[in-house]
Design a protein that fits this description.
An eight-stranded antiparallel beta barrel has the order 1-2-7-5-6-4-3-8. The chain is an alpha+beta fold. About 10% of the residues lie in helices and about 30% in strands.
Amino acid sequence: MNEPKTVTLYTTLGEIGIELYWHIAPRTCQNFYELSKRGYYDNVIFHRVIQNFMIQGGDPTGTGRGGESIYGGKFADEISKELKHTGAGILSMANSGKNTNGSQFFITLAPTPHLDGKHTVFGRVYKGIGVVNSIGSVATDSSDRPREKVAILRTKTSSLVE
């Protein structure tokens, strides 16, 4: 992989450009990139939004309990001591415990050091942090679900950082 591969999420609130950390989490990046390329995330909602914490999406059922990886189920963590949840714009895999990665991901809205060592960090927002913050500010219900639909309309994969 000579050129960095990126993903752009076109959401109901604008574009989010994502740089992937292929050199540290290659299987996780491949999963996210391929799911994006296949249109898996198209019209998928951000089903969980917690102000000053994170926005979560990637579950085609919209429930927070669905989604599958390109590997046919769950796959192992690629946790690195090098990458941490240091601030807003960190892309990480959502999971339900060790080695339970599927299709769900989250983007941080603030430092979340308590997640270090528990979730695979595999990228960062390089464009559109204002969009991420806007999604992070939407009104939610008592279950942290946005009251109004906030979704990924489509994705675009690219070989170069724009």
